[in-house]
Amino acid sequence: MFKVLVIAYYFPPMGLSGVQRTLKFAKYMSEFNWEPTVITAGDTAYFAHDMSLLKEAEDAKINIVRTEGFDPNSILASKGTVKIPREFIRRNLSRASKTIFIPDNKISWSQKAAKKAMELLKSEAFDLIYVTIPPYSAFSEIAKIKKIYDIPLIVDYRDPWYGNHFAFYPSPFHKVKHKKMEDTALRAADKVIVINRRIKEHLLTTYKFLTFDDIVIIPQGYDSHDFENGLIEKRPDSKMRITYSGIFYEDITPKYFLKAFKKISLERPDIAQNIELHFAGLFRKENEKLVRKLNLQDFVVNHGYLDHVQTIKIIKNSDILWMMLPDIKSYDVVSTGKLFEYFGARKPVLACVGEGASKSASLEYGASYIVSPNDIDGIKNIIYKIHSQFKNNELPQPNEDFVLRHDRKYLTELLTKQFQFYLRSE
Length: 426
Hints:
This protein is an alpha/beta fold. It has 17 helices and 13 strands.
């Protein structure tokens, strides 16, 4: 077995989609002759914790090393699972943090993780370091280790760094500093992994020293094992169930979708009565208030945050899976994890998206209905179409070859082949 040191702040028992890519890679690495040791956060306060994902990591016998820093999540660890604040509060707190900390408020943890990594490198023979970002400070700190130990370093971009869709630069200094830090870290990396072509193009355009072959695309995916259990329930009625899985934040909002459905309830109450809107995740108080304002309580089922096993059950027992991304240029690089889990369910997808990576993936998937995210009438009309096809048993079928190419085990094989290249080249 070869040994890889994995640096990942976001890892179970933290929940939400940001932990799953790294967990699933670590879970399947041993099947391709790589033994991972994951350096991650210790106890943290966080918006969601998922013990089912932690059990998955433990069942896979992943070696997990935990360390705390002085980041806000670690400082508030005694609070456990905390409620996500109202969006305007969360956004302002985020901007304050980005004003104070460069590149992010996980600097303290990243420094502790780098120190722990050096301790492990002194006592064990690792063949490679793999760091997943965000947080971007982890890449910056681990890049310094690569220079000291001359060990291959691979970085995995789940989101872009400089100029990403959540970026906030209160001054020209902040903007220049971020770009300089990313430039320095990238020069230390042996290989860059990204989740889609848009991020690859962004990096090649921004950092001219990178070549096409320096960056490899390994997309988001789904774990076929999650869908193998007998989770299909007997439905008490024949209503069409539309489900959203995940969180709403920043400009990701259900308001246009709900307003479109409100129009349906007024124009065609007979159709509205045959549809259920399910939400599995952090729905937030402001969205609950919107549901009441639109008088849609009878149509909406809010499951709240569920662990991953229960979320998959909700997805499997849905007829249509809905997602949205704002039609904002900076979001064109986003390949949201939930979308690829939808693909794994092989259900029709209602994708309210603008141009970008998620639209391209939805088109390739085949069983997708695509409409602009803030086009209320467009969303309304596409729901009418979907309902008609649902009643007539004419819902589209996905491109099976595309689905299979996004299985987590297959993607892990692609990743470990990149690892293997650096062993052969030494």
